[in-house]
Amino acid sequence: MLLALSLLGGCRDNTGAPIRIVLGPAATDELTLTPRASLAELIEISPTESALLLTLTSAERTCDASAPAEPDAASVALRLWLPGAAKLEPGTYPLLQGSLPGDKPFAVAKVLLNGRRHELRAGGDLQLTQVDLGPQGTVEGLLKLEFVGDATDPATRVSGHFLAHFCRINRLR
Q1: Most exposed among 46, 65, 127, 151, judged by the fewest C-beta atoms under 10 Å?
Q2: What is the pLDDT of residues 84-109, one digit of tens each?
Q3: Domain count, the chain
Q4: Per the domain annotation, does 57 fall within a domain?
Q5: How far apart are the first and last CA of the chain?
Q6: Does pLDDT of 37 surpass 90?
Q7: What is the DSSP string of 11-34?
């Protein structure tokens, strides 16, 4: 049994699950991102506000350093705002645009694709299915970010499962 457990641990894949990105109608606006790094950071900004930062990227990156920028790197960066007494826990958090004040948790997201940053429009949500704040903890969930499009902006979608490892948990106390 010990041998079987060690084989399972030795075979663990360091890459993440595929994330589907669609930023417009052109073929160059679409990509399936297989993250080479999936990192998380929890920051207590004040006694009444915290933020979870998630980075899913095709570039080599560790908690301590990132490799030199790759011109064709792609990434999804999310910020989950936790105002008031909100704690980081499994749940569904709506994707909004910009930094809106409020008393309910919400997420904002940016995508780096083809050397350009795109802030995602409001729509869809970030679902956290598991949160482990212990040493070597992780956060796991689903991206279901979708803007249906309008007369001036095309429809966008970022979807897929993620598992990110905590680099830092910065607490005020």
Answers
A1: 151
A2: 878 999 999 999 976 656 788 999 99
A3: 1
A4: yes
A5: 42
A6: yes
A7: T---SPPPEEEE-SSSGGGEEEE-
Pick the closest to residue 49 from 94, 129, 104, 119 (CA basis).
104
Judged by DSSP in three states, 8 sits in helix
**Residue 1 located in a structural domain:** no
CA distances from 143 to 5, 19, 124, 140, 151 (A): 30, 8, 8, 10, 25
Phi, psi of 145 (to 5 degrees): -95, 120
The Cα 151–Cα 52 span in angstroms is: 33
Name the residue with higher pLDDT: 140 or 103: 140
Is 6 among the domain residues?
no
Compute the distance between CA of residue 97 and CA of residue 140 in angstroms, rounded to an integer: 22
Residues near 159 by Cβ (< 8 Å), separated by ≥ 6?
19, 20, 142, 143, 144, 145, 146
The pLDDT, as a whole number, for residue 3 is 37
| pLDDT score of 5 | 36
Mean pLDDT of 118-122: 94
Q: For residue 13, name the pLDDT band (cuts at 50, 70, 90).
A: very low
Q: Is residue 56 part of a domain?
A: yes
